[in-house]
From TrEMBL:
It comes from Drosophila albomicans. The lineage of its organism: Eukaryota, Metazoa, Ecdysozoa, Arthropoda, Hexapoda. It comes from the Eukaryota. The gene is LOC117571007. Belongs to the FAD-dependent glycerol-3-phosphate dehydrogenase family. It catalyses: a quinone + sn-glycerol 3-phosphate = dihydroxyacetone phosphate + a quinol. The keyword Mitochondrion applies. This is Glycerol-3-phosphate dehydrogenase. Residues 618-653, 655-690 form the EF-hand domain.
Length: 726
């Protein structure tokens, strides 16, 4: 045992000392590119945000842009901001919506990568080390540039084997050391009791202690949108729902064919037109190779896609301000368990996949995540399939390595490639390093296409992102006092829009109540208000999916709540965009399909259908009785009219038709507009086993039985037996 301890101590100490020496020597001989911020200053941004129609008009003007960027994710938006702030005439087009792909489906972390640092040190991998160091530098930059959308997050690493305590402690301290003076906060060691105090849900059996380190957390979709809007305010032409149909080439005078523009289609108006550009940048993430093959059909693929699934659980699964890291799952992956917008995110998986515009989570991946987090939570927290509020899959655009087959061994570093026709491709990378990736890409574009920027170097390292300039942590108090908003709503607006929250608040309608004065919620469980829908249209939201998934994050937080809020959202958007009745119905159908297929709604329903009925004879008799009490006409099924009648008897006479349909849909698994007895029994069995957390229909049936029994008891006790009263 003493020999084992000695060897472990030597290994741990060597790793720590080695990381310090490596950090010093690499930094000394490989200093990163430094921008002289004192010399270079970005142009002042415009006061007003151009309307989408104005952006499309600019795109159709026939003027030649210096740079045309394909892709409106984090990297594409970052390239647009870097390019326009250097003084280049910049345009960006996105097939769907800003952040509609991988950029809105991340773990929401801003991090350097603890796992990659471990590989860098143990494998003496210089490339991995540089990637981690760059990411840690960019982590600090993101936290400074968008303080309203980002914040430091402590993450706990629980340790259940005593000898791993010094091992993980050394590794996390190395993480702090590599960050240097750009570290967020210092990591620290916790005893077992202190760990349980900070994370009460943690399993305490055999717990030796824990290590807490800091990374950043963000609202990824709104961060990407904010970067794109910042670029637009600086003069860039940014357009969503515009597809590149063809790349155009010309002879450069030497016999070489080079790109000079693209044929595009605006999917909102249906118009097709040509955009001229001196340089075209391919920033399409997982779809990198499709644009490269549009340029040269015979080119080899460079992207190796990997699917990552996340699930959202209720907020009580984790503390408000403490995440959890499982460093080694049953199959060697890493699982994060993080608080986010009052809910809990768990993920992710990491499997090779096919490239698609509509990635879907699978039941197997959801069950894998649930089974892994069970290992870290105490017996009081029953991890139930029915608690999964939302689930989504994102495709990571990993740069493939022909010498490695396992996607887990692929680093998330990026490459910049220039084709013979001058197509500049940025591939790979990670959310955290989007700004540095954009800087490297624009540097390459300037060189390859002989562009003449006003400022030769990037100025984005100290630029505030949309909403960050006038934001303060206590700004929400002014929103409460000046506008009469609920405190929770004001905090949400301040965190989502920063100093633009005042402009949002001005669009809010009166509630007609004493308090709050303005701000009608679109769903009672979430702080989203009507004004955000109207402001979202000004932020280039064109469809209901744009709104529920990326302007608001409702689809990611609770897919059922998003479905329930859809009619209100579509009505308000219809007013702003002059939608017809048919268009509103089309938007609702499209959004419903999105929620069902990409946000896990259909999988949640399917998981209920697969549940066998596990009820005792007595339980079945009880539930049959309750069902028959609601089915007063003895039809053999419960209709929406039966539900309306039952709710009215409880005093809920103001229930809307949409709410009645939602109650019916949560139990009507065969989708025939009525509830059969077997569907009700299946629901009750699912509630018993934990596969379903709660059912309004089940609660209604229980109340109906209580009301019936109370009425019977009243009839049985006659005046004579009661003594005639007092």
């Amino acid at each position: 045992m003493s020999s084992r301890m000695f060897k472990f101590g030597v290994t741990a100490a060597s790793a720590c000392v080695g990381s310090v020496i490596a950090s010093w020597s690499i930094d000394r001989w490989n200093s990163p590119h430094v921008v002289n911020n004192a010399v270079q200053r970005p142009p002042k941004r415009k006061r007003t945000l151009p309307m989408r129609s104005e952006q499309i008009k600019s795109l159709m003007s026939g003027e030649e842009f210096d740079v045309l960027i394909i892709g409106g994710g984090a990297t594409g938006a970052g390239c647009a901001l870097d390019s326009v702030t250097r003084g280049l005439k910049t345009a960006l087009v996105e097939l769907d919506d800003f952040a509609s792909g991988t950029s809105s489906r991340s773990t929401k972390l801003i991090h350097g990568g603890v796992r990659y640092l471990q590989k860098a040190i143990l494998g003496l991998d210089l490339e991995q080390y540089r990637m981690v160091k760059e990411a840690l530098q960019e982590r600090a930059t993101m936290l400074e540039s968008a303080p309203h959308l980002t914040h430091p997050l402590p993450i706990m690493l629980p340790v259940y084997t005593w000898w791993q305590v010094p091992y993980y402690w050394v590794g996390i301290k190395a993480y702090d050391l590599v960050a240097g003076d750009r570290n967020v906060k210092s990591s620290y060691l916790l005893s077992k009791n202190d760990a349980l105090e900070l994370f009460p849900m943690l399993k305490k059996d055999k717990l030796c202690g824990a290590i807490v380190y800091y990374d950043g957390q963000q609202d990824d979709a709104r961060m990407c949108l904010a970067v794109a809007l910042t670029a637009a305010r600086h003069g860039a032409t940014v357009c969503n729902h515009v597809e590149v149909k063809e790349l155009i080439k010309k002879d450069d005078g030497t016999g070489k064919k080079v790109l000079c523009g693209a044929k595009v289609k605006d999917h909102i108006s249906g118009k097709e037109f040509t955009v001229k550009a001196k340089c075209i940048i391919n920033a399409t993430g997982p779809f990198t190779d499709s644009i490269r093959k549009m340029d040269e059909p015979t080119v080899k693929s460079i992207c190796s896609p990997s699917s990552g699934v996340h699930i959202v659980l209720p907020g009580y699964y984790s503390p408000d301000q403490m995440g959890l890291l499982d460093p080694s799952t049953s199959d060697g992956r890493v699982i994060f368990f993080l608080p986010w917008q009052r809910q809990t995110i768990a993920g992710t998986t990491d499997l090779p996949c096919e490239i698609t515009h509509s990635p879907r989570p699978t039941e197997d991946e959801i069950q894998f995540i649930l089974s892994e987090i069970k290992n870290y939570l105490n017996a009081d927290v029953e991890v139930r399939r029915g608690d999964v509020l939302s689930a989504w899959s994102g495709i990571r655009p990993l740069v493939s390595d022909p010498n490695k087959d396992d996607t887990q061994s692929l680093a998330r570093n990026h490459i910049v490639h220039v084709s013979p026709s001058n197509l500049v491709t940025i591939a790979g990378g990670k959310w955290t390093t989007y700004r540095a990736m954009a800087e490297h890409t624009i540097d390459a574009a300037i060189k390859a296409c002989n562009l003449k920027p006003e400022r030769p170097e990037a100025v984005t390292s100290y630029l505030k992102i949309e909403g960050g300039q006038g934001w303060t942590p206590t700004m929400y108090i002014r929103l409460v006092q000046d506008f009469g908003l609920e405190c929770e709503v004001a905090q949400h607006l301040a965190k989502s829009y920063g100093d633009r929250a005042f402009a949002v608040s001005k669009l809010a309608t009166l509630t007609g109540k004493r308090w709050p004065i303005i701000g009608n919620r679109i769903h009672p469980e979430f702080p989203y208000i009507d004004a955000e829908i109207r402001y979202g249209v000004r932020e280039y939201a064109c469809t209901a999916v744009d709104m529920i998934a990326r302007r608001l994050r409702l689809a990611f937080l609770n897919v059922q709540a998003a479905q329930e809020a859809l009619p209100v959202i579509v009505d308000i958007m219809g007013e702003e965009l002059q939608w017809s009745k048919d268009e509103k119905e089309r938007q609702i159908k499209h959004a419903t399909d999105f929620l069902a297929n990409e946000m896990g709604h259909s999988i949640n329903r399917t998981s209920k259908e697969r549940i066998p009925i596990k009820l005792s004879k007595e339980e079945i008799q009880t539930y049959v009785k309750r069902f028959q009490l609601i089915d007063k006409d003895k039809k053999g099924y419960v209709s929406i009219n039966d539900i309306r009648r039952a709710l009215k008897s409880f005093g809920d006479g103001d229930v809307s038709g949409e709410q009645l349909h939602e109650i019916l849909k949560e139990i009507d698994t065969n989708m025939n507009g009525q509830v059969e007895l077997d569907e009700y029994l299946q629901m009750m069995s699912a509630i018993k086993t934990g596969d379903v957390a709660y059912s309004r229909f089940a609660r209604m049936a229980e109340l109906e039985e209580q009301k019936h029994e109370a009425a019977n008891l009243k009839q049985k006790i006659s005046v004579d037996r009661s003594g005639g009263g007092l």
